[in-house]
Amino acid sequence: MEMCNFNFSEFEHLWHCCSTILSQQLTMGQGNKTDVTPKDLLFIVLCVLKAATNWDVMGGIFEKKGPTLQILFSQVLEILSPFLCEEYIAKYYEKLSMRTLKHKNARFKNFPCALYATDVIFQHANRPSGTLLEGKPYFSGKHKLYGYKTEVSVAPTGHAIDVTAHKPGSISDLVIFQGNLDFHKQALTKHDDDDQDNGLHSVRYPDNWAVLLDKGYQGAQQYVRAIIPKKKPH
User: Is the Cβ–Cβ distance between 113 and 202 less than 8 Å?
Assistant: First the structure.
């Protein structure tokens, strides 16, 4: 739990799900093979994702050189990312509906008409090589750091139902949201057997459920049924 935020049973469950694909992919092809077992690699990846420190520090913990650990980390993520997204995100999204949330009594307490909440997470990264102008798109004025942004949508149950590809850190949350409109419009459309509601913006969007957004998404109401806190006037 201290190293990767997973207890023993949770880690074993995750390993059981991805052991076959990870073992097969890591042993395919020619060339030198790592002496680290696939199960240990999965544990290392989870630890690196939690710690988010530099590679030399993590390499010292696992008795590997920093660049070597970085290569192994990238290889495992390249193998597991599509599988885990399909297994834990896409499959849950396929089963998501307001009727199911209502049956489980899992809707948002204050906004029962909202199907999910969406926000952007920022991941700090080193400044890209090149000139200042080439690296500028990756600088976030809000965080005062170079990095990437990824939009994540989360159901009231705590399950992620959508994760976008990363974008440069200078791109605003609203622009990233606009680039993912196809998903939001499809996900928020009511099914034929869904009940009608009288929540916020139900008159303007009678055939859609709502999405919870923060103050950085001002203007999203013109695209979807968005519930956004109002900004205080100057």
Answer: yes
